[in-house]
Amino acid sequence: MADEFLMSEQSVYIVDDDEAMRDSLAWLLESNGFRVRSFDSGEAFLEAYHADMAGCLVLDVRMPGMSGLELHERLHGLRSTLPVIFVTGHGDVPMAVSALKKGANDFIEKPYNNKEILGLIEQCLAANRELCQQRRHHADLARRIASLTPREREVMELIVAGSLNKQIADELRISIKTVEVHRARVMDKVAVRSVAELVQCVMQAAAPPAC
């Protein structure tokens, strides 16, 4: 169900100043069941861009005004998680290779094979779905841990450090019974059933989210 939800949110964003190329690719993608949004310039895409966009970007290298490479650099600075496929002319391959080194996912030369570009887009959308799931999981873990009271967080940190109930009681100067109550609430709020799961959740929440 989660995969279906993510897929329903995803779009393929086409950025190309060539109207015929935009329309041709949009028709190909829509006829294969993809959601598509088209833009005639990098500037137009940046105006519409927001960090929650899901899907992938098919980006022409050479455009008047902001080039595809410049747009890619701007998106990198904005910490965009959209996978990028560059569409290039033959003479643009060195530039596309340079873009790969800066984080682009792939490039394809004009005139491209329909099956090949569909395959690249499928791969990028799958990678984006996985990344979105990781980010949502990280946000959910952070939310669960943030729901703990200050005392529950203290107890959790001591549990994760390997302390036994008696040691926690001594450290916090509370009764073992109170430790047991806090411990049960921690396990319930973080939604784990074992100390091993709790340790794993705390470690995952402490790690930077996928980007």
TrEMBL record:
Coiled coil: none annotated. GO terms for molecular function: DNA binding. One of its GO terms (biological process) is regulation of DNA-templated transcription. SUPFAM superfamilies: CheY-like. InterPro entries: CheY-like_superfamily, Sig_transdc_resp-reg_receiver, Tscrpt_reg_LuxR_C, WH-like_DNA-bd_sf. SMART domains: HTH_LUXR, REC. Residues 11-125 form the Response regulatory domain. It holds the Pfam family Response_reg. This is Nitrogen regulation protein NR(I). It comes from Candidatus Accumulibacter phosphatis.
